UniProtKB/TrEMBL annotation:
Signal peptide interval: 1-28
Keywords in alphabetical order: Signal
Entry superkingdom: Bacteria
InterPro entries: DUF4390
UniProt lineage: Bacteria, Pseudomonadati, Pseudomonadota, Betaproteobacteria, Burkholderiales
Protein name: DUF4390 domain-containing protein
Organism: Aquabacterium lacunae
Length: 194
């Protein structure tokens, strides 16, 4: 290709770049916003136990709601891990706690069902069913017992959609899709000595 033609092709490419950036930003603005936000996370220490309270705001993407209405069940998991800090080795796990909720839609009764620990309950709307999962108060992590040591401790908390519980073909088709990546994580210090 002669030099003048290469120059014209280069100028045409430069002229199209702002347009490509504008199209990409317009797509990003029009894409549905999927969000999960940790609004509150507190650890309370009493003489009886160490307990956790949290509140998460979840906005489900439209295609996930459609999949639920077509019979797909999804699982949300809340995990709380308490660690003791150690300078000489990896941090020592003290407590590992987990709660799992299975959310499904029952088309015959037009109710939403939430299963937790083998117990299930029906709700009239998706909002009510999600409200059960999105907050917890006084979740006991450490039961009464000997007083903990005075070393530093910290808590790692996560709340997420468990993709491993989805049907395998759906897991493969999602690939790197960010629409279904619903997760929040937080780490905070925990004063165990009183």
């Amino acid at each position: 290709m002669p030099a003048p033609e290469r120059r014209r092709a280069f100028i045409a490419l430069l002229a199209s770049l702002p347009l490509a950036g504008w199209v990409a930003s317009a797509r990003a603005q029009s894409a549905p916003r999927v969000s999960m936000e940790l609004q509150n996370l507190q650890v309370q220490r009493t003489d009886e136990a160490l307990s956790l309270s949290y509140q998460v705001r979840v906005d489900l993407p439209k295609d996930l709601e459609d999949a639920l209405l077509k019979g797909l069940s999804i699982v949300f998991v809340a995990r709380a891990n308490l660690y003791r800090s150690r300078w000489y080795w990896t941090d020592k796990p003290r407590v590992e706690a987990e709660r799992r909720w299975r959310l499904s839609y029952q088309p015959l009764t037009r109710h939403w069902r939430v299963n937790i620990d083998g117990l299930s309950r029906s709700y009239d709307s998706l909002r009510e069913a999600m409200g059960v999962m999105q907050r917890a108060g006084q979740w006991r992590l450490i039961e009464p017992g000997p007083p903990p040591d005075d070393r530093e401790h910290y808590l790692e908390f996560s709340f997420e959609l468990d993709k491993d519980e989805l049907p395998r073909p759906l897991q493969l088709s999602l690939g790197g899709s960010s629409d279904w990546n619903l997760a929040v994580q937080r780490r905070l210090p925990v004063p165990l000595n009183r």
